[in-house]
Structures are given as structure tokens and as C-alpha cells.
Design brief:
single chain; alpha/beta; ABC transporter transmembrane region fold; Rossmann fold; 2 domains; 6-stranded mixed beta sheet; 4-stranded antiparallel beta sheet; 14 strands; 12% strand; binds adenosine-5'-triphosphate; binds magnesium ion; ABC-type oligopeptide transporter activity; transmembrane helix; ABC transporter ATP-binding protein; ATP-binding
Length: 546
């Protein structure tokens, strides 16, 4: 599973190696420049102050000032470059994961709450990207700083150098046993964050719904519960984090104290000059900083493992063969198809044959599988066994890239999204003139409504079309299908919220509206069945032509 993420990340990181290299060069300059500062201070103390050389003092202070200025500038440029670079990697990474989400079947996606998917796609991907880019770079520059500063310290005093080398592994060994707890706590944190988002998405979207049911207290109490749970997890995580960060700090303090005492002893004995001791202590501080960076990276491993697992879980386990339909004919044929949702068997060995341009009605009681059958035909669900042909191509277990040119379904519950009316109607199909769109709006009898809009086709449909009635949403969904013009159209209870008079009109005009298309209408409108070529009924896991 993890391999999938490596397969996405590795080429991405490799492609950006020039960016890494640039940042690496910046880091070398900053490390070298930074390492030079304590050496200047040492000379100020030992050669300018103690020997009372005012001229040398001014030169060294000036030098130190300009060096600091240059380093600040380089650091600032590097930071902007790095932010840009890091964002590019994050966004491309997310794009690639997002693209893979489209490969999933509906029943798999339905096992996740949308808020859960959201935290995985946002938070967990952020975490992974941060780790893989920041850590690489931090390791590069840390390694470099370690070498430079170790060499400098070594040149001062070998015994002090050895003393430091003893302390560094101790820090790591002290935090290592805590990894397991950190892993579990991070997992809890992510899950609780997900629960909180879930709660907000659900309750805020339906505030007035809960109010009309008098359920304000129910929601407020749920908010209390969710927040209380979240608080508990955060506090537990915070405590662990404190132990995680403070153990190294304590050990560093111990190290500094010993070095100060021992270094002081050497200075008093005349083996080390005062300036050298000051420089040495500064170098020691500088050495600790990269060491803590490495420790920070190591400490992030448990968190990254959690994110790795959470992102892996939403990636497709296997990728279906990508193909395109290019058949001249678009007859639909279902052969020996069976389908179950887990243990719930919906279809048992069904066959179906629909020739192009036929107008078909699909009827059956609630929950018998009408919508499910059309999900299978549109390839957003895979059958448990059997074959589905569009023309001569079996679409089962395949990723058909141009499936929407052939078969499109108008969902039972109309879907509108936050965007302009035109965007909602055209989706990716941008080459349609406004005049044509307006004609279609006339066909679905939405022209009067359209004329009342201040900004015409550029008017915004707010969040999921909340500024529309359900019947209006159904009409716009119908308009969308008419503009997409696929070869096979599935209309799932497309007039369930449309008034009686227009429902009759739509049914009677199916032939005209969809003249060169196959049409499959799912309906409970049993008085309208006469206009269809054939009527199919789903019953007892079978489909029968009547
Ligand atoms: N994502 C799912 N996971 C598990 N079971 C599901 C899922 N979607 C539908 N079902 C079950 O599959 C059966 C068929 O559902 P489907 O939506 O296809 O019925 P339908 O014939 O379209 O009903 P309706 O007339 O109410 O729209 C139902 O028993 C339903 O509970
Ligand atoms: Mg249905």
C-alpha cells in the first residue's frame, strides 16, 4: 500500500531535484556564514578586547555586522523560494491523489464520511508533504552544519568534542521508547479531528432542518460531546509532546552545564582562552540545533506513519485498465450479471438487451435495485460477476476514460455545486454558445426563472443550489444532460419533484428531447408507461420485460 504513495512522491521529488539543489546551496552558504560568526566573536574577545586593539575591534564588529546582513538577506530569499517550491510539491501531490480518487467505485467511497475524506486529503497529505520535503532539506543542511561545526569544535579541543558526541545519542535513546505512544496518540488526534469536522459539516448544513424539528438541544449536546472528546485527545497528545520535546532539552541543558564547568576549568588552568570558551559554547549551541532538527524529524516518524496509512487507505488498491470506447454502435447488453452490497444480494444472474435509440422504462418498488442497476451501467459500480457491453466493449473492471460521451445518468437527487449557472450546466464542456444554453433552458421550462436572474448565465448557484427549489434543480439537471448529449441517457426519477402538468409534457416529449439517444427512465409514474418501447420490472433480484 505504502508503495503507492512512494510511486506518486518519488517521481515528484525527483522531478524537483533542481529546486532541492538550489535550496541546498542556499543552506550551505547560510551554514558556512553562520559558522564564521563565533570565530569573529572569539577574535573580538581574545585579540581586540583583551589586547585593547580598538582598530581591530571596529573592523571585526563591522565584519560581523555585514556578514549578519548578508545572511539575513539570503535566508529571506531562501524562505520565499522554499515556500513556493514546497507548495508546488504539495499541490501536485494532492492533484495526483485526487485524480486517483476518481478511479473508485461508489460503494467504496460511500464507506467514508465526506469530512473524513476531507481531513485525509487535506491534513494527512500536508503532513506527508511536509515530512518528505522539509525533512530531506533539513537532513541535507543539518548534516552539513554538523560536519562543519564538528570540525571547528574538534580544532578547539578534542576532549570537549568527545563529550558532546556522548550526549547526542543519549537524547535519541531517551525518546525512542515513546514512539509507540506518539503513534497511537496521533492516530486518535486525526480521528477526533475528523469527527469534529464531520459534526460541523453535518450540523451547519442543516441548521434550519434541526430547528424545525426542535432539535437544537440535541445538536448543542452533541457539540459538547464532540468537543469534550477532542479536548481529552488534545491534552493527552500535548502531554506526550511535552515529554517528547522536553527530554532532549533537559539532556542538552545537562550537557551545556557539564561543558561549561569543564570548559571553565580548562580556561582557568590556561588550556583554553576566554574567547575560545565563549566561541566553543556558541558552537555547542549551534551543534545542538541541527541535532534537534534530526530528532524532530525522527519524532515526526510516528505521525507520518499514521498519515501514510490514512492516505493509502483512500487510494485504489488496483488500477483498472484504462481504455476508451470508440464503437460505432452503442447497444447495451448485460450478461449474467450478479451484484451484492456486502452480503445484501441485489441481482442474481440478470440479462438485459437495449438497442440504440430505444426508449425504456425501468420500474420496481423502493429498494429493489433500479438506481443500483444504472450505477452498474455507468461503470461507477462493478458487478460481483457478469458482463456489461456498450457496443462491443465489456466495460466491467475497466476505467473507461470517455464513458461520459456514451452514457450519462441524471441522479435521483439532483446535484448542483457552488458555481455559476453556466458552470453548473456545462461542467467541462466549454464550447457551447450561450444561445444554445438558453434554448435548452426554454426546453426545460426554466426560461422565466432565467430571465429573472440579475447576472444571467453568470449568476451564482449558492452551495449545492440552495437558492433553487427541488423541482428547479431537477429541470437544470435535465438541461445539463441535454447539453452533454451522450449516446445513452439514464433519468432516475427525473420528474419526481416536477409538477403534474410538466411531468406529463416531459414524458410525452422524451422522443423529441432525446431524439438520437437511448433513454432509460426509472419511474414510479405508472400511468406514463405507454410512451416507452419496452418496460422492465425489477423484482426478486431479477429483471423482467413486460
Ligand atoms: N451504497 C450502498 N451500500 C449498501 N447498500 C446499498 C447502497 N446503496 C443502496 N443499497 C441497498 O441496495 C438496495 C437497492 O437500492 P437502490 O437505491 O438501487 O434502490 P431503488 O430501486 O433505486 O429504490 P428507490 O425507488 O427508493 O430509489 C437497497 O436495499 C439499498 O438498501
Ligand atoms: Mg433509486
Amino acid at each position: 500500500m505504502k508503495n503507492q504513495i512512494t510511486q506518486i512522491l518519488y517521481p515528484l521529488l525527483k522531478k524537483n531535484k533542481r529546486g532541492f539543489f538550489t535550496i541546498f546551496i542556499f543552506s550551505i552558504i547560510v551554514s558556512l556564514g553562520g559558522a564564521f560568526q563565533p570565530y569573529i566573536i572569539q577574535n573580538i574577545i581574545d585579540n581586540a578586547l583583551i589586547k585593547q586593539n580598538l582598530y581591530l575591534l571596529y573592523i571585526l564588529v563591522g565584519l560581523s555586522f555585514f556578514l549578519a546582513l548578508i545572511l539575513i538577506s539570503i535566508r529571506s530569499v531562501n524562505e520565499i523560494f522554499y515556500t513556493n517550491f514546497s507548495m508546488n510539491i504539495l499541490f501536485t501531490f494532492r492533484q495526483k491523489v485526487f485524480k486517483k480518487l476518481f478511479l473508485h467505485k461508489k460503494s467504496f467511497l460511500n464507506t467514508f464520511h465526506s469530512a473524513d475524506l476531507m481531513t485525509r486529503v487535506q491534513g494527512d497529505i500536508n503532513e506527508l508533504q511536509r515530512f518528505f520535503t522539509d525533512s530531506f532539506l533539513a537532513l541535507f543542511s543539518t548534516f552539513l552544519s554538523l560536519i562543519i561545526i564538528s570540525c571547528i569544535i574538534y580544532s578547539y579541543n578534542i576532549k570537549l568534542m568527545l563529550l558532546i558526541l556522548v550526549f547526542l545519542p543519549i537524547e535519541f535513546m531517551c525518546v525512542k521508547p515513546l514512539y509507540k505512544y506518539m503513534h497511537n496518540s496521533t492516530k486518535d488526534m486525526r480521528e477526533k479531528t475528523s469527527d469534529t469536522t464531520k459534526f460541523f459539516v453535518q450540523s451547519l448544513q442543516n441548521l434550519t432542518f434541526f430547528k424545525t424539528l426542535g432539535a437544537q438541544n440535541f445538536i448543542l449536546n452533541s457539540l459538547d460531546d464532540v468537543q469534550e472528546e477532542y479536548k481529552k485527545t488534545v491534552i493527552k497528545n500535548k502531554k506526550l509532546n511535552i515529554v517528547f520535546t522536553q527530554i532532549p532539552a533537559l539532556i542538552s541543558l545537562l550537557g551545556k552545564t557539564i561543558i561549561l564547568a569543564y570548559g571553565g576549568y580548562l580556561t582557568i588552568k590556561g588550556e583554553l582562552k576566554i574567547g575560545e570558551l565563549v566561541a566553543f559554547l556558541t558552537y555547542f549551541g549551534m551543534l545542538l540545533s541541527p541535532v534537534h532538527t534530526v530528532l524532530g524529524i525522527l519524532n515526526n516518524i510516528p505521525k507520518v506513519k499514521v498519515s501514510l496509512k490514512r492516505v493509502s487507505e483512500i487510494l485504489p488498491k488496483k488500477e483498472e485498465n484504462a481504455t476508451s470506447l470508440d464503437g460505432q454502435n452503442y447497444d447495451l447488453k448485460v450478461k449474467k450479471l450478479s451484484f451484492s452490497y456486502n452480503k445484501n444480494r441485489i441481482f442474481e444472474d440478470i440479462n438485459l438487451d437495449i438497442k440504440e435509440n430505444q426508449k425504456i422504462a425501468l420500474i420496481g418498488k423502493n429498494g429493489k435495485g433500479k438506481s443500483t442497476l444504472t450505477d452498474l451501467l455507468c461503470s461507477i459500480e462493478n458487478p460481483t460477476s457478469g458482463e456489461i457491453f456498450i457496443g462491443s466493449t465489456n466495460i466491467v473492471e475497466k476505467n473507461i476514460k470517455n464513458i461520459a460521451d456514451y452514457i450519462v445518468k441524471m441522479e435521483q437527487i439532483p446535484v448542483m455545486f457552488d458555481g455559476t449557472l453556466k458552470e453548473n450546466l456545462l461542467l467541462s464542456n466549454k464550447n457551447i454558445e450561450d444561445e444554445k444554453i438558453i434554448n435548452v433552458l426554454k426546453l426545460v421550462k426554466m426560461y422565466d426563472w432565467y430571465k429573472s436572474l440579475e447576472n444571467g448565465l453568470d449568476s451564482r448557484l449558492i452551495e449545492a443550489g440552495r437558492n433553487l427549489s427541488v423541482g428547479q434543480k431537477q429541470r437544470l439537471s435535465l438541461a445539463r444532460i441535454l447539453l452533454l448529449k451522450p449516446k445513452i441517457v439514464i433519468l432516475d426519477e427525473f420528474t419526481s419533484s416536477i409538477d403534474k402538468e410538466d411531468t406529463k409534457w416531459f414524458f410525452e416529449n422524451i422522443d423529441k428531447l432525446f431524439s438520437d439517444m437511448t433513454v432509460i427512465v426509472i419511474t414510479h409514474q405508472l400511468d406514463m408507461l405507454d410512451i416507452f418501447d419496452f418496460v422492465y420490472t425489477i423484482e426478486d433480484k431479477k429483471i423482467k420485460r413486460s
